[in-house]
């Protein structure tokens, strides 16, 4: 951006005036102290007549806002042709509302600064482009009933999250299933996991706990993940039954 600004004959204050941001914000972005928001990038694109150069880099900027342990997997996820996940404790990040995601980051231990909370929230919401980007990816989510009932944030946050899930269920490339609390033993009790297929048709797994993430490449291990996921799909409520359960939760509040 600094190169494009100088090519346009502008100083930082003039660029800030042109895009509606302060001198300090422009300087922070140029010096890499603050990742640019999408709105800032779009405004700078217009003001500097950048020809799409800045917008082409926005994906990299958004990934820089993610927690460090997750960035490697995010590269695979962004171009996935299919992604299947099981989440026993929380609504998965790809399906979270802004209020739900912000409540999670606000409760982080040790505490995060407001700026980091903002960055992580923005990055999580940016990942959700996978739900609707072309070509469509095949997406499947199995969420435990306990995760849905977990009171993250206040009642309005939780209710808004349930309503958002009902909207996501209507997307033709997305399937949401709920694992009922009364199911008893099942193959997901060892914890959450993701099975993903890249555009090169490579199959990967991903597991995460206590801010340690691991991309699994070994074919035998990824195959085991796939077998477990198939078993979980057969044990969970189907899509229609899952939507009805979520509707009941909304009606109870």
TrEMBL record:
The residues that cross the membrane are: none
Q: Which InterPro entries match?
A: Cro/C1-type_HTH, DUF5753, Lambda_DNA-bd_dom_sf
* The protein, known as: Scr1 family TA system antitoxin-like transcriptional regulator
Domain HTH cro/C1-type, chain residue ranges per copy: 1-34
Q: Which SUPFAM superfamilies match?
A: lambda repressor-like DNA-binding domains
The record's PROSITE patterns line, in alphabetical order, gives: HTH_CROC1
Q: Which CDD domains match?
A: HTH_XRE (cd00093)
């Amino acid at each position: 951006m600094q190169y494009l600004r100088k090519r346009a004959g502008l100083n930082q204050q003039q660029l800030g005036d042109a895009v509606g941001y302060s001198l300090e914000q422009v300087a922070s972005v140029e010096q890499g102290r603050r990742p640019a928001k999408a709105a800032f990038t779009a405004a700078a694109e217009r003001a500097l007549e950048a020809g799409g150069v800045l917008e082409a880099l926005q994906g990299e900027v958004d990934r820089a806002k993610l927690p460090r342990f997750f960035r490697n997997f995010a590269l695979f996820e962004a171009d996935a042709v299919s992604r299947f996940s099981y989440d026993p404790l929380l609504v998965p990040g790809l399906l979270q509302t802004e209020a739900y995601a912000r409540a999670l980051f606000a409760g982080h231990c040790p505490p995060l600064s407001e700026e980091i909370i903002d960055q992580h929230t923005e990055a999580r919401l940016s990942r959700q482009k996978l739900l609707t980007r072309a070509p469509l990816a095949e997406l499947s989510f199995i969420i435990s009933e306990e995760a849905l009932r977990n009171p993250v944030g206040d009642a309005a946050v939780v209710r808004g999250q349930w309503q958002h899930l009902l909207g996501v269920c209507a997307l033709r490339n997305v399937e949401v299933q709920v694992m009922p609390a009364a199911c008893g033993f099942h193959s997901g009790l060892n914890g959450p996991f993701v099975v993903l297929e890249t555009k090169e048709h490579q199959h990967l797994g991903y597991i995460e706990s206590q801010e340690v993430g691991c991309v699994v490449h070994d074919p035998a291990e990824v195959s085991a993940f796939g077998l477990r996921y198939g078993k979980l799909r057969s044990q969970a409520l189907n899509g229609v039954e899952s939507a009805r359960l979520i509707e009941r939760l909304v009606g109870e509040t």
